[in-house]
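ZP: hey, is the S-adenosylmethionine complex queued? I don't see it on the tracker
AM: it wasn't, my bad. submitting now with these inputs:
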Amino acid sequence: MEGRAQTRFNSEDTPLFEIVFQRIQKSQEGSISFSDYMELVLYHPEHGYYASPEQRKVGRKGDFFTSVSVGPMFGFLLAQQIVAEWHSRLDEKSPLVIVEQGAHDGQLAADITAALHEHPRIDCTLLTYRIVDPRAETRAFLENRFSDSPVRIEIVSTLKEAAAGQGIFLCNELLDAFSVDRIVYSRGEWKEQAVARVDDRPAWTERTLPPSLEPFCEALGSDFPEGYTTEICPGLPHWIQEASGLFESGLWWIIDYGFEAEDYFSPHRKTGTLRCYRNHTATEDPFAFPGETDITAHVNFTHLREFGEAAGLKWLQYTDQHHFLIHAARDWLLSREGKPSEGESAQQLRQFQTLTHPGLMGQQFKVAELGKNVS
Ligand SMILES: C[S@@+](CC[C@H](N)C(=O)[O-])C[C@H]1O[C@@H](n2cnc3c(N)ncnc32)[C@H](O)[C@@H]1O
């Protein structure tokens, strides 16, 4: 349990706390799962952290950086890889639909479509870029942003609506924003760490595992020290099942920070991977500044693989961003050989280094590539 004395609260916290407390009051156990709490504070339509894409959360003026906020280079390199795949493992004569989920303010879509539009080998009439976002306000913002895009960009609300014959699905830092449940190894068994109301504040409380978490915990076994805490993403199986139905043939690129199970549940990681970000400061306290703080957990890529394969996708590769982007950049790097690095070119090179350097973003971020009916 985290001490209440260490928790700083915001004077504006009342609306979200009231909503959380109402949920707790309605629950039979007097507590709600952490995933329900996270869903409210991140995605409540009015007060949630991600309620509106206009309020900049990503980048220098926001709470955290992503590969997208480094600059257009990330989208440029993904576009090079899209073209390479369309002309090799996919059918270059058939239309291609790129589907992005978790697009936020659409910056990655803007960077990718700009690079595709300029690409000499692309027939843009065969290309559609679809963004999936469940929130009407975000869709309206994106419709407006892309109203005169030279590449066809469509905004839809569900993965089902984004379905196509042939496509490439991509998401950057989507899965780390999915709500997670928390479990703790306590007195010889796994318990759920839920959220209760204590002294008019949300606080951790232990409760018996719900049936939905039992299979995960059984698979984990019992070789854990007292107090070992970790996370499970309950929405992952359903999400990958839905995403797998997007295309009859295509590729799925999932880019995020995370580990395979052995590393994820390693004995030294005894406080789990839950992190909160506000104004570029990381904390482990999800109850402070609700609605102003991003809450994330690392992705368990072994679970992604297991559920992806169960949904009929083939696990094609699991690599880090360094290797994925260096491969995507090969033609661009060759074209630059011997040329001076000045002005825009020097800026591109700096972005490339930030994205790929193993000590910066290159090793921290991983890329899972899944596929269906591709050679
Ligand atoms: C950490 S941000 C990453 C934003 C952007 N992809 C980037 O890399 O800068 C996560 C984004 O995923 C969005 N998100 C979470 N769940 C989603 C869902 N089910 N469908 C679409 N977007 C979702 C959030 O609203 C948020 O904009």
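AM: back. The first strand starts at residue 31 and ends at 32.
ZP: great, adding it to the tracker
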